[in-house]
Amino acid sequence: MRTDWTREEIAELFDLPFLDLVARAHDVHVRHHPENEVQLSTLLSIKTGGCVEDCGYCSQSTSADSGLKAEKLMAADAVVAAAQEAKDAGSGRFCMGAAWRSPKERDMPALLDMVSRVKALGLETCMTLGMLEGDQAQRLADAGLDYYNHNIDTSPENYANVISTRTFQDRLDTLERVRAAGVNVCSGGIMGMGETRTDRVGFLHALATLPEHPGSVPINALVPIEGTVLGDMLKDVPSAKIDDIEFIRTVAVARIIMPESMVRLSAGRESMSDSTQALCFMAGANSIFTGDKLLTTGNAGDSKDAALFAKLGILPMKGEPVQAHLAAAE
Ligand code: SAM
Ligand code: DTB
Ligand code: SF4
Question: Does the first or last residue of the chain, that is N or C, have fewer Cβ atoms within 10 Å of its Cβ?
Answer without folding.
Answer: C
